[in-house]
């Protein structure tokens, strides 16, 4: 395997990582309207992440066109439902029109959803080979990564990693695996609300379905010490609380910022329970967190 990412200088990598800012927001592909995208940028968020395994990149254009400087990234393009050469050409089109603002997040998804699924490490490596051949810069791509092999691949052949559905305990391990110079940008779900039971009622369903029934995610949680009892029946309260921050805006901000304390450069906040999350995002980014 080629270790091409480290051909970049430390200062070059740092400049790309800085573009993400310390906080971003994550939403399903098509979640954010052009007006919301502009509002999110005005709030001071560094990155808008667009998830849901899009088959092409064209809809990203509306978010880029509505904003001025904010970074936009996929979280993620699924290698099984996209052609690497086509994605590379679409990346080039976006780069031509919005130079330097789009970062390509890719990943292997999960075996339950793909009949052709094979060892993700090998499949992602081949996908990256095509991106290399088509000129997609190493420093402009990030990889979905949970386990140690994929984390190392993220350091070797991309700017870094974008773990999904992970508590800060995973972030600490991921930073140790990635080394100091790679982007580490975990996603974290949040619900604003001071009643724990009500917050769990919002947060539990999108965690349980599908993620607590997908091997990639359950295996990762078990590596972190969670048990079958925690994962079964929609997830224990302790597990849901670890994966979905809830409480006041300050309490939510404090919990997501635990990722930064554990070694992340950036945390992508996914607001649950709101059709238009700008108000919640404003409260979180503006919260004063006690030392």
Helix content: 40-55%
Distance between the termini: 44 Å
- Outline the biggest β-sheet: 11 strands, parallel
Strand content: 15-25%
Instruction: Please state the second-level CATH architecture.
Output: Alpha-Beta Barrel
User: What general outline do the C-alpha atoms trace?
Assistant: globular
Q: Using only CA atoms, what is the Rg?
A: 18 Å
* Tally of domains: 1
What is the CATH topology assignment?
Answer: TIM Barrel
Kindly provide the name of the CATH class: Alpha Beta
Name the CATH superfamily assignment: Luciferase-like domain
Helices and strands, in order, run as HEHEHEEHEHEHEHEEHHHHEHEH
Number of continuous helical runs: 13
Residue windows where pLDDT falls under 50 for at least 5 positions: none
Task: Give keywords.
single chain, 291 residues, alpha/beta, TIM Barrel, eleven-stranded parallel sheet, 11 strands, globular
Summarize the structure in words.
The protein is an alpha/beta fold and 291 residues long. The chain has one domain (5-187, 252-275): TIM Barrel (Alpha-Beta Barrel), CATH 3.20.20.30. The chain is 44% helix and 15% strand. The protein is built from 13 helices and eleven strands. It has helices at residues 10-18, 34-43, 60-66, 84-97, 120-133, 148-157, 168-178, 196-208, 215-223, 228-231, 237-243, 249-261, 278-285; strands at 23-28, 47-51, 71-74, 77-78, 102-107, 141-143, 160-161, 183-184, 187-192, 244-247, 267-271. Strands 1, 2, 3, 4, 5, 6, 7, 8, 9, 10 and 11 form an eleven-stranded parallel β-sheet that branches. Helix 2 links the parallel strand 1 (23-28) and strand 2 (47-51). The longest helix is centred in the first third of the chain and has 14 residues, at 84-97. The radius of gyration is 18 Å and the shape is globular. The protein starts with 9 loop residues before the first helix and ends in a 6-residue tail after the last helix. The model has no long low-confidence stretch (mean pLDDT 94).
């Amino acid at each position: 395997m080629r270790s091409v990412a480290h051909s970049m200088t430390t200062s070059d990598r740092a400049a790309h990582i800085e573009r993400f800012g310390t906080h971003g927001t994550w939403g399903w592909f098509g979640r954010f309207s052009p007006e919301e995208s502009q509002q999110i940028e005005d709030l001071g968020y560094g990155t808008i992440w667009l998830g849901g395994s899009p088959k092409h990149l064209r809809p990203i254009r509306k978010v880029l066109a509505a904003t001025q400087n904010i970074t936009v990234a996929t979280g993620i393009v699924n290698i099984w439902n996209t052609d690497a050469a086509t994605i590379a050409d679409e990346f080039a089109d976006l780069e031509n029109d919005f130079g330097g603002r789009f970062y390509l997040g890719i990943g292997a998804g999960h075996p339950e959803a793909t009949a052709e699924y094979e060892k993700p490490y090998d499949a992602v490596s081949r996908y990256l080979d095509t991106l290399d051949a088509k000129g997609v810069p190493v420093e402009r791509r990030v990889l979905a990564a949970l386990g140690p092999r994929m984390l190392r691949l993220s350091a070797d052949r991309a700017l870094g990693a974008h773990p999904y559905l992970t508590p800060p305990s995973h972030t600490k391990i991921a930073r140790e695996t990635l080394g100091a110079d790679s982007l580490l940008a975990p996603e974290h779900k949040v619900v604003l609300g001071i009643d724990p039971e009500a917050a769990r009622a919002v947060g539990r369903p999108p965690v349980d379905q599908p993620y607590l029934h997908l091997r990639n995610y359950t295996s990762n949680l078990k590596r972190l010490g969670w048990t079958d009892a925690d994962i079964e029946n929609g997830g224990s309260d302790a597990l849901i609380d670890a994966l979905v921050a809830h409480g006041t805006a300050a309490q939510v901000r404090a919990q997501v910022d635990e990722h930064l304390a554990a070694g992340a450069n950036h945390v992508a906040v996914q607001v649950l329970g709101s059709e238009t999350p700008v108000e919640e995002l404003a409260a979180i980014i503006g919260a004063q967190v006690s030392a």
